[in-house]
Amino acid sequence: MPKKRSGGGLSTTQQAAKFLGVAALSGVVLAGIALPAAGALGLATKGTVEGFDEIPANLRTPPLSQRTTILDNKGGMIASVYSRDRKVVELKDISPYMQKAIVAIEDARFYEHGAIDLKGILRALNRNVQTGGTAQGASTLTQQYVKNVFVEEAGDDPDKVAEATQQTMGRKIQELKYAIQVEEKLGKKRILTNYLNITFFGQQAYGVEAASQRYFSKSAKDLTLEEAALLAGIVQSPSRYDPVNDTAEATKRRNTVLQRMADVGDVSQAEADKAKANPIKLKVKEPKNGCITAVSGAGFFCDYVRHVFLSDPVFGKTKEDRAKIWNQGGLTIRTTLDPQSQQSVQSSIKNHVYKSDKVATAVTLVQPGTGKIMGMGQSKPYGFGSNETQYNYSVNKSMGGSNYGFPTGSTFKPFLAAAAIEGGKPATQTYPAPYEMDYPDTVRSCGKPWVNDGVPKYHLENENESEKGPYPLKVAMEKSVNTYFVQMLQDIGMCPVSKMTDKLGVVQGDGTKLPQNPSTLTLGSNGLSPLTMASAYAAFANRGTYCTPIAIESVNTADGTSLPVPKTTCSQAMSQTTADTVNTLLRGVVDSGTGQEAGLQSRDNAGKTGTTDARKNAWFVGYTPNMSGAVWVGSPSQSVEMERITIGGVYQDKVYGGQVPGPIWRDAMTGALNGVPAPVFNTVNIPDPPEHGDEDEDNARPGPGGKKPGKKPGKKNPFPGISIPPDLIGGNTGGRGGQTNGGTQGP
Question: Taking the model in full, what pTM does it have?
Answer without folding.
Answer: 0.77
